[in-house]
Amino acid sequence: MGVNLNVYGEETFQWQTAPGEQLQAQLSIKEAILRAFARNPKIAQAAAQIRVGKANLEEAESAWFPQISLQGNVGRSHRTDSAGSLNSNAAGGVNLKQLLYDFGKTGGSIDEQENLTEAYRYGLYDTLNQVGMQTLQAYLQVKRYQALAQAAQRNLDSLQSVQEMANLRSEAGLSTQSDVLQAQTRIAGMNASLEQYRAQTRSAQAALSVLTGVVSDNLPDLPEDLMRQNISLKSLPYEQNNAVRAAQAKQLAAEQRIRQAQAQHWPTVSVQAGRTRYQNDNGDYWDDEVQLVVDAPIYQGGAVSARVDAAEGDRASARADVEASKLDINQRAATAWADLTGAQQRQQAGEQQLNSAERARGVYRDEYRLSKRSLNDLLSIEQDVFQADTSSITARYDAWDAAVRYAGAVDNLLDMLGIERTRMTGDTLPTL
After folding, report:
1. Which residue, 85, 109, 156, 176, is the most exposed by fewest CB within 10 angstroms?
2. What's the burial of 98, exposed, middle or buried (CB within 10 Å: 0-12/13-18/19+)?
3. Residue 11 exposure: Cα atoms within 13 Å on the Cβ side
4. Cβ contacts of residue 149 below 8 Å, gap of 6+?
5. pLDDT band at 196 (very low <50, low <70, confident <90, very high)
6. For the segment 295-320, what is each residue's pLDDT rounded down to a tens digit?
7. Which top CATH class is 2-66+110-265+319-416?
């Protein structure tokens, strides 16, 4: 977004254009997810947060390094002591301060920032998992409606063959023209269903193209490993889940904040050295100093105790976040498992129903040619075939969706697709 001034001197904003899209002959699953990584701002935000965490860590570590400063002043200064009075018009010098020991204040700050940096890294990995799952679900929606449109096209072709049979029988005087009209009516209805599925396909493709930046009609099938993954609700791998690990790292950071707050009761020991040159009316002189400085708080109105209480509250909240993330994983995994089991059973029943309906369709057509079946019987069995076909397709993609959601819940989705999330630097994203 840019800012310009118009003729009246008022600010005008130039908003960025929407991300572009490109046509592509084929879009694989892995490429779709990696392209979604490159376009999703949440991932860039999570990566930027890691850099913020590293900068905060370096700032905390800098407390152990010497602190060097220059100072200078100009103006009249008058000092009086037992040796007499001293006037100066200007002064300038250099100071050096080195922290020696602070009873855990700096160490606690460093450990806190290290844990927060780890939490940000795990947060990035969790964001990658969520974006990958979202992209894969959009990918499945496109394939779902493509398959349903193909089923509608198959049924439409079959109904057209029924219409041809009705035309031949009507021309031969074996049936009335009403049979032809009935077939045409059913064909019109199937055409409407086909266009509905095509519209839903275009809508799903639009959603996928927003995520990936690619428009493609050719989407390969998902790997069978997703359907063969080990599913267990008794021993979920919480320790491998990046959402849980991020929450645990934040809990450790909260514990270090308690350590820092408690250390405020103790003194800070440092050494300080300086060399200052003063300019006065009688001549210039140097003032050198080397001191051991002990800063020991005596009373701060209860501020330190309040900080300890606040830090303990943060730790309790962080512990609750860990348990909440585990509960969320458990709920998502249990729901996905139940949906997967039900979808597989529905798919099996739908395939059996489809096989039975297709066999009955062949028998009904032969009997219709011999005038032993009415056209209503033939159109009815065509409807049964279409319903069984669409039910089987819907159940199949419901099972795929549940398998994806389970893999996403246990944070195993990207690993099963061969997309590695580096654990070396934390902010290096997978690339095409």
Report:
1. 85
2. middle
3. 5
4. 194, 197, 198, 201
5. very high
6. 888 888 888 889 889 999 999 999 99
7. mainly alpha
